[in-house]
Input
Amino acid sequence: MTCFVLFSCKEKDGEPDMTEPNKTISVTFVNDVEKADIWILPQTEENRKTSLWGTATISKLDSGDKRTVEISSFDEGKYIVRIIDSDHAFYSADDMILGDNCTIHFKSDETKYESSIVVLDKDGKILYSKEAFQGVFGAY
Output
C-alpha cells in the first residue's frame, strides 16, 4: 500500500519551513450505481454551502468498481460526500465519520430511486448508513 504524507510549506527567513505533516487516512470507495465523480470533503460550513468542490477526489469510477484514496484527516472528523453520476444525478450525504482503512459503499435499488451510502470500518462493521439525498441537474 502506498501512503502519501503531505507537508505544508511556508517561508521562514527565506527558507522553506516544513511543518508537521498532515495526517491522512486511507478510504476505499465502492460504486454500485452509475459511473460517477465523487468528492469526499471535510464537513465545514463552507463545503456545505457551496456547489464548487474543486477536482473530484475520485474521477469517473465505473459501476461495480472500487478505488482506494488517501484523504486528509482533520480534528473535527466529519465528512460529506458529493456524487455526480454519468446521468447527471446528484447524491449527497453528510455527518460521516471516517477512519483509516474504512470503506464507503454507494448502492441503490433496481429502480435507482433509493440510494444509500454505507461506511464500514476495517473489520466490516457498519459505522454509518444513510439514504443518500438525490437530485438531478438540468432538464430532460
Remarks:
- The first strand starts at residue 9 and ends at 12.
- The chain has a mean pLDDT of 80.
- Residues 10 and 17 are 5 Å apart (CA to CA).
- Residues 45-49 form the longest helix (5 residues).
